[in-house]
Design a protein that fits this description.
8-stranded mixed beta sheet, 3-stranded mixed beta sheet, 9 helices, 36% helix, globular
């Protein structure tokens, strides 16, 4: 007899910068079908919204935390030695809004993926300071200065794994993976930031292929290419794009596992 797995249902949340708000819409659609995660695995933007949800907030409440904010409210420009911005403001934002400060205290267990820049490997944070680990997971190289944790420099988890299904695959009976970065924008600006972002999109897209195959249900909003990473004021539109796509996919998908 096969041994039952530790968790019935897991959610996997990809990176995607501003498109991460689509995760909240997709989660809302899942909740409305009584599907809630017993564990969350995340990278980058998925780690940001996932941590706030795992802390006990409903998706619409997380969305409200960002109302009225701009990109510069969550970042700080610095002399471009290791990056153009640093993420101290993002960490402060999380410290204000999180009720729990450490990953291991979250009501919903969480795995936050980041890239160890010093040793060239993936790190899966299951314990530690949430704000610091989320910032490390979100730290797109060149755009942001690396986040230092225990004397190690970390950058965006999406560099090596933008859809982290494998970290929880053996623990979950059923995995719902939400990938908010499935397609590339055909046109792009020829400046240093846009070129860097587009290059990372190629990397992120390619390393999701093996992970996508391991999910039981894959939700991929394909209508997000028109949003700039500065469009925080359009977060509700992005939320609805994720919500509508998830509803469409779930309406065609048998209910695999109810939440407990």
């Amino acid at each position: 007899m096969a041994k039952s797995k530790k968790y019935q249902t897991g959610f996997v949340l990809s990176g995607g910068f501003i498109k991460g708000f689509a995760h909240l819409g997709a989660i809302q659609a899942l909740i409305e079908r009584d599907i809630r995660p017993q564990i969350i695995s995340s990278t980058s933007a998925g780690s940001l919204v996932g941590a706030l949800y795992a802390d006990g907030n409903e998706p619409y409440q997380v969305l409200e935390f960002f109302d009225g904010l701009t990109f510069t409210d969550l970042t700080k420009p610095v002399l471009p030695t290791t990056g153009f911005f640093e993420l101290a403001e993002l960490q402060e934002f999380l410290q204000v809004h999180l009720k729990r400060k450490r990953i291991e205290l979250l009501p919903v267990p969480m795995v936050i993926t980041a890239t160890d820049l010093d040793n060239g490997r993936l790190v899966y944070f299951r314990r530690g300071d949430i704000a610091q680990c989320v910032a490390a997971s979100c730290c797109m190289p060149v755009l942001f200065s690396p986040v230092v944790i225990d004397n190690t420099h970390f950058v965006d988890g999406g560099v090596l794994m933008n859809l982290p299904v494998s970290p929880i695959r053996e623990e979950c009976e059923c995995i719902y993976a939400i990938n908010v970065s499935p397609l590339l924008t055909p046109d792009y600006k020829k400046n240093i930031i846009s070129i860097a972002e587009r290059s990372y999109q190629f990397i992120f897209r390619s390393n999701t292929f093996p992970e996508r195959e391991m999910a039981d249900v894959l939700i991929e909003p394909v209508n997000l290419s028109g949003y700039s990473n500065l469009d925080l004021d359009r977060s509700r539109e992005i939320f609805m794009a994720g919500y509508n796509t998830a509803n469409e996919i779930l309406s065609q998908t048998p209910l695999l596992s109810p939440s407990n």
